[in-house]
């Protein structure tokens, strides 16, 4: 019955969209929401095989449910730019400075925008038709703002790049929209045009609903109590090299602060008795997780460094606000994607097992605070390392960054993946002391990655990781690729 009602709800949305602009999808999207049967790869097309495997892995961690209302209520506000915007641009300031001011101006404009809720049916059959979202659009030709309102389906439809277009309604006359990516608070993005001009997106207002009221189907109350967040997901309009380098510096400095705080608190390691936790996990290693967790496998396979740069640019622009609203299908939240599971998840485990670190016990607040959650991730690494075999722990202690693949594998999928990875490495005929940092593939090499890199005489060569868990294999591949950015 529930499925029938959901189907009718979507049908109603489509029928009401008689004058709507239909979405078209870009090839660069976010997480696959619906896992499908794998296409058999061509044996002579390693790149295509890698893409297929990445898509299967990405299906495991799609953008998911509603952002917790308490997270939306702690939204950080940026200050309004002090200079007149048009004057700033005329002065010829650096591009990243102009972008930052445009984003701040867009936030200010959107604060007072009223979202347009629409209801269908009467009496007990009344239903909230969709989710209204507002965008602040900048015209470089006319040097002026336009606020565009778009209505997307509620509940969110299942969508993946290259699949069925997501239906939506443009409620602002004269504006044409194209769905680019995402369905939720963290990643939903459109491209807009007015006439022949492509408008730039510098702001978005997205309502977060009360999950309890949604379950009770109190539609009017859902709209009345909605908490709109003004937050800009990644868009090509804000990608800038200064933000990329700034994102690296911000993440690494935050990780170093986390390590310094743990050192000052004299927190001891569980994996290496008598040693400080601060000496067990290098800041460069923990920093990689803040990027890996927000990088789609498909984007990584297709775009490599550029996929990382999108994430780094977002950190450089948004700083501590970046990825606060990231919610996976498994209800993992925040930049490091911790879970709670009614007080029995990974986050609660870390709070209990690592008391000296003084991790914030409030899940929604703590999991969305980057400094706090980096401390939690360091504690989790140590907890996972303590459960590994003595030979892995010994090898890791001597080569923490390279052998970081083991706690990284555990962070992604638990201790079972560590056991599987170790067995796979043994089957590969590679000893742990032969493993090296990722190098560059030589011209003519036909190696299907994900790979590990081992010493071979004077060279470092890639060795394909046999299949054991698609998501975990690609997680390790991303870890090795991004690590060098922070060395």
Which descriptors would you attach to this protein?
487 residues; alpha+beta; Lysozyme; seven-stranded antiparallel β-sheet; two-stranded antiparallel sheet; globular; disordered N terminus
Description:
- By secondary structure, the chain is α+β, with helices and mostly antiparallel strands.
- It has two domains: 76-230, no CATH class; 241-421 and 473-486, Lysozyme (Orthogonal Bundle), CATH 1.10.530.
- 41% of the residues lie in helices and 14% in strands.
- It has helices at 2-16, 46-58, 69-72, 85-90, 95-111, 211-216, 219-225, 241-264, 283-292, 297-303, 305-318, 346-353, 363-366, 370-386, 390-398, 405-413, 415-427, 470-486; strands at residues 119-120, 127-128, 130-139, 144-153, 169-170, 176-181, 189-194, 197-208, 227-230, 451-456, 459-464.
- Strands 3, 4, 5, 6, 7, 8 and 9 form a seven-stranded antiparallel sheet that branches. The protein has a two-stranded antiparallel ribbon with strand order 1-2. Strands 10-11 form a two-stranded antiparallel sheet.
């Amino acid at each position: 019955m529930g499925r029938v009602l959901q189907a009718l709800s979507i049908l109603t949305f489509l029928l009401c969209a008689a004058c709507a602009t239909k979405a078209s999808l870009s090839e660069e999207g976010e997480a696959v929401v619906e896992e499908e049967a794998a296409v058999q790869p061509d044996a002579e097309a390693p790149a295509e095989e890698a893409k297929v495997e990445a898509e299967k892995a990405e299906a495991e961690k799609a953008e998911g449910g509603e952002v917790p209302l308490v997270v939306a209520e702690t939204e950080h506000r940026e200050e309004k730019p002090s200079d007149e915007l048009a004057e700033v641009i005329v002065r010829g300031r650096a591009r990243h400075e102009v972008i930052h001011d445009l984003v701040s101006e867009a936030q200010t404009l959107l604060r007072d925008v009223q979202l347009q809720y629409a209801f269908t049916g009467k009496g007990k059959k009344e239903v909230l038709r969709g989710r209204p979202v507002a965008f602040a659009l900048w015209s470089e030709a006319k040097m002026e703002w336009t606020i565009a309102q778009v209505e997307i389906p509620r509940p969110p439809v299942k969508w993946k790049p290259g699949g069925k277009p997501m239906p939506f309604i443009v409620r602002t006359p004269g504006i044409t929209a194209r769905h680019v990516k995402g369905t939720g608070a963290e990643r939903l993005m459109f491209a807009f045009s007015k006439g022949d001009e492509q408008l730039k997106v510098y702001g978005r207002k997205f309502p977060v609903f009360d999950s309890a009221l949604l379950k009770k189907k109190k539609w009017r109350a859902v709209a009345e109590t909605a908490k709109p967040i003004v937050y800009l997901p990644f868009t090509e309009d804000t990608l800038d090299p200064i933000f990329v380098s700034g994102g690296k510096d911000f993440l690494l400095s935050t990780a170093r602060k986390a390590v310094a705080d743990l050192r000052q608190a004299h927190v001891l390691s569980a994996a290496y008795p008598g040693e400080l936790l601060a000496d067990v996990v290098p800041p460069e290693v923990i920093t990689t997780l803040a990027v890996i967790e927000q990088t789609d496998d498909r984007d990584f396979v297709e775009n490599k460094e550029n996929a990382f740069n999108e994430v780094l640019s977002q950190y450089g622009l948004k700083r501590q606000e970046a990825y606060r609203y990231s919610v996976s299908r498994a209800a993992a939240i925040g930049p490091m994607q911790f879970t709670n599971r009614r007080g029995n998840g990974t986050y609660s485990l870390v709070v209990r097992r690592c008391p000296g670190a003084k991790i914030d016990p409030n899940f929604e607040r703590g999991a969305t605070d980057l400094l706090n959650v980096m401390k939690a991730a360091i504690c989790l690494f140590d907890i996972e390392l303590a459960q590994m075999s003595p030979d892995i722990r010994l090898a890791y202690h001597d080569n923490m960054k390279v052998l970081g693949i083991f706690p990284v594998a555990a962070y992604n999928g638990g201790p079972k993946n560590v056991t599987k990875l170790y067995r796979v490495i043994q089957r590969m005929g590679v000893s742990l002391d032969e493993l090296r940092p990722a190098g560059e593939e030589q011209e003519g090499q036909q190696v299907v990655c994900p790979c590990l890199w081992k010493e071979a005489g004077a060279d470092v060569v890639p060795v394909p990781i046999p299949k054991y868990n698609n998501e975990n294999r690609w997680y390790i591949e991303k870890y090795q690729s991004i690590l060098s950015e922070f060395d």
